Amino acid sequence: MPRSQRQSAQRVAEERRDAVARASARWVDLQLDFVDERDGELLGRFGGQWDRARREFSGADAPRSRVIKLHPGQIEPARWFDWWLGYHLGAADVEIEPGASKVFDVLCAGGRRGGKSAFSFSCAVAYALSVPGATVWCVCPSDAFFEEPIAYLESIMPREWYESLGWPHWTYFLANGSRIRLRSGHTPAQMKKGKADFIVINEGQSVPQGSYDHLSASIVDSGGLVMTAANPPDAGDKGMWVADLAAGAERGDRKHARYFFFDPLDNPHIDQAALAALAEKYDEHTFDVQVRGLFLLPPDTVLHSWDRKGNEQPMPAMGDVTRAFTKHFEGREYDDIVGVDVQNYPWIAGVRMRAYRNPEAPGDITQSLLWCVGEVFLEAGDEVDFCEGLRSIGCHPDRTLVIADATCDYQQQQRDKNKQRPKYSGKGSMDMFRGEGFVHVVPPDDQMDRNPLIEERCRAANARIKTKGGKRFVFADPKRCEKTVTSIRQWRRGPNGGPSRKSKGAHAGDALSYVLWRFFPRRRQNDKVEIKTFKRFQGTTRTRGF
Predict the structure, then answer these.
(1) Which of 7, 16, 326, 425 is deepest in the core (most CB within 10 A)?
(2) Percentage helix, strand, coil, to 5, in the chain?
(3) What pLDDT score was predicted for residue 537?
C-alpha cells in the first residue's frame, strides 16, 4: 500500500474512532488474558484499561478481559511469550538468566489442528495491546490466504477494540494506536518496504526464503520478534528454511531462536480416535510428518532415515578412535577416512569421516560413531585438484584411507582421452590418487569387481544411519559439511522409483554409502537351491533283469 494511501486510511480510521469515543465512555477495556483451560491459571495479561482522552493506559487492570483459553499443548509457548514480552519491554520484575541472549525468531510448528496458528495470532494481538502505537504484520503466502488470519483476528478482538477498512487495506487500527496489517509474502522484494515491531508468518512452509530474510531485517530497529506458524515443508514447498530454523534452534546453533512443537496429540479439542485411525491407515513416517508435524525428510528421500536434528551434530571434541577403528577393519591405522564419488567431468564429491567412541558401547570398536567432519566438492576440476583439496582440509596422504567408486580402478573423470592429463592418460582415478600421494585407495567391497547395487548400498546406509531400534551411528557436522548434509536431504528417488542419478545430491550420497558399505556391508545371501547331479548307477549282475 503506498504511503499516502496508508496515511489516508489511518486518518479515516482515527476519525471513526473519535466519533465512537465521543458517543461512548472515556475508557475502553483493551485487555487480553491467556489462561490454562484446565484450571483457569493466568498465564499472561496484556494491555489494560485504555484512556481515550489521554491516549494512554490507566495503569489499572480493565474490569473486563478477553480471555483466550489455551490447551495443554500451548501452555509452554504461552509462558515463554509472557516472559519474552516482559524482557522486551524492560519489565523490572522479569528475571534474566546470566548470559541469556535476546530472541528474535520463534517457530511454532507441528501438525494440523495443533493450535499453532491460533496461538500465533493471539500473540500478535497481545503485542499490539501491550505496545501502544506498535506496527504488527501478519504475513501469508499470498492474499489468497488472508481468510484465515481475518477469521482468527476478528474472533480474538472484540469489535469495539478496532476499526477496519477491509479490502484493499486489510489493516486493523486499534484504539491504542497500534496497527495490525495483513501482508502477502509472495514477492520477496515487497517485504523490504516498511518496518515492523512484531511479525507473524502464517503457513511459513509456503513462504519463500527471500521473504523471510527481508522480514527478519524489518524488526532490527525495534528488536521485536518474528513468529512463524508452519507445517513441515513437503516436496515442492518454497519454505524449506522452516526445517533449517527448527534444526538450528534445537541444536543450539541459532542462539536467537526458539522452536516449539505443537503436537495435535496434545490437543483435547480434536477427535483423538480419528487420529488413532489415521495411525492405522498411514505408515509411521507419513503419520509423523503429515499428521503430527515432525520435521522428517520426505518419504521419497533416498537416505530417508537421516534426521536434521538427530544426525546433524557438531564434531565431538574428544573420543577419536579412527586409528583403532581402521586397524580393526583394515589391518592398518589411518587418521582419516574419505569416501569419493567420481562422475563425468566436472563432478567429484568427497566426504571426510572419522570414528568416535560410542558412549553406550565404549569397549566395542564396531559400535563406533562415524562422523562427517569435512568435505571436498569440485564443480570444475579433476582428481589432481581433488587431492589438493584433501590436503587443504588437513588430510595427510599417507594417513588417509580413500574409499572410491569401484569404476575408478579403470576409468577417470575425464573420459575424453584427448583431454586427459598426459601423465595420467589412459589411467583410472585410483591411479591418479596414488600418483598424487594418496596411495591407500580401496573399492567399497574387496569381494566384488564392481560397486554394490545402489539399492543395497542405500539400504545398508539407512540401517547404519538409524537402526530399527532408533540408535544412530552416522553423523555430520553441518558447519563443516554444509554441501554433504544438503545433498543427503535433497537426494530423491526418480520417476522409476530408484535413487535419482541426475540429482546433485547423488554424489555425496554415493560417497557416504561407499564408506558405510566398506565397513558394514549387507550382502544378500544366496537363496538359490543347489541341485546336484548324481552319476547314473551302472547296473551289476544283481540288477540285471529288472
Answers:
(1) 326
(2) 35, 20, 45
(3) 42
> Is omega for the bond preceding 346 within 30 degrees of 0, making it cis?
yes
C-alpha–C-alpha distance, residues 413 and 415, integer Å: 6
In this structure, are residues 288 and 298 in contact, taking their beta carbons and an 8 Å threshold? no
Q: Cα separation of 320 and 373, whole Å?
A: 12
Residue 226 · residue 215 · CB < 8 Å: yes
Residue 301 has a pLDDT of 86
pLDDT at 99: 52
Strand order in the sheet with 27-36: 56-57, 42-51, 27-36, 66-70
The one-letter amino acid at 65: S
CA 478 – CA 313 distance, rounded (Å): 7
**pLDDT tens digits for 33-74?**
999 999 999 999 999 999 988 899 988 899 999 999 999 999
Same structural domain for residues 252 and 370?
no
Q: Are residues 340 and 243 in the same domain?
A: no
pLDDT in tens, 237-287: 788 899 889 888 887 888 899 999 998 888 888 877 877 777 777 667 777
End-to-end CA distance of the chain: 108
H or E, element range at 509: helix 505-519
Range of the domain at 434: 322-519
What grid cell was written down for 16?
471513526
Q: Tell me, yes or no, whether 394 lies in a domain.
A: yes
Please name which of 308, 383, 374, 309 lies closest in space to residue 342, comparing C-alpha atoms: 383
Tell me, what amino acid is at 215?
A: L
Q: Which of 87, 82, 89 is nearest to 100 (CA)?
A: 87
Dihedral (CA of 285, 287, 290, 296) sign: negative
Q: Which residues, in sequence order, are bridge partners of residue 352?
A: 338, 374
Check if the beta carbon of residue 350 is closer than 8 Å to that of residue 377. yes
CATH of residue 153's domain is 3.40.50.300
**Helix runs in 157-251, H state only:** 209-218, 241-251
Q: What is the CATH number of the domain that holds 432?
A: 3.30.420.280
Residues 257 and 332 in one domain: no
Distance between CA 288 and CA 293 in Å, rounded? 6
* Nearest alpha carbon to residue 408 among 434, 437, 377: 434
Q: What torsion do the CA atoms of 18, 22, 25, 29 make, to the nearest 10 degrees? A: -10
Which pTM value belongs to this model? 0.71
Residues 215 and 345 in one domain: no
Whether 545 shows a pLDDT value over 50: the answer reads no
The average confidence (pLDDT) of the chain is 86
